[in-house]
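Researcher: We plan to redesign the surface later, but first we want a full-length starting point. Tokens attached.
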């Protein structure tokens, strides 16, 4: 959850349930200041100003995440795509995927991938295309083992 104050744009006390991400902050700040992004920069996010003005949604099909390493908080290497209420998580260690309906399962406790094979395939395909588009980097071999890679299936 984010809290944003934009005097003169947002009505005080309003809320919005549209999924957004921290990558949207830079384009939003530029937009609120009336500035264009530097030509040599690619923006990963979009301006949230339409939402701040009260529009219902953004012109964006998906949100993507790429986390290619382990963390000291238990995180595992993986990627994810969110489309509406659906979130697909792909583990880079072995290529296993998990699908969650966040409207019904905000805690991501009920993996419904096995009951939604077509949705999994379509979302995974879009996620893999995004990996290529952003030139995502993956696990490097360790101890002579070859790590799983999404483009080797």
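Model: Full-length starting sequence:
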């Amino acid at each position: 959850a984010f809290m944003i104050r934009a005097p003169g744009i947002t009505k005080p006390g309003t809320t919005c349930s549209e999924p957004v991400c921290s990558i949207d902050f830079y384009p939003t700040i530029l937009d609120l200041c009336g500035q264009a992004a530097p030509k040599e920069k690619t923006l990963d996010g979009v301006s949230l100003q339409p939402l701040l003005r009260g529009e219902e949604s953004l012109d964006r099909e998906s949100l993507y995440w790429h986390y290619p390493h382990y963390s000291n908080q238990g995180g595992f290497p993986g990627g994810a795509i969110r489309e509406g209420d659906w979130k697909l998580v792909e583990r880079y260690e072995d290529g296993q995927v998990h699908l969650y309906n966040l409207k019904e399962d905000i805690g991501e406790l009920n993996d419904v991938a096995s009951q939604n094979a077509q949705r999994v395939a379509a979302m995974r395909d879009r996620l893999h295309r995004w990996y290529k588009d952003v030139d995502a980097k993956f696990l490097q071999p360790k101890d002579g083992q070859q790590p799983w890679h999404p483009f080797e299936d």
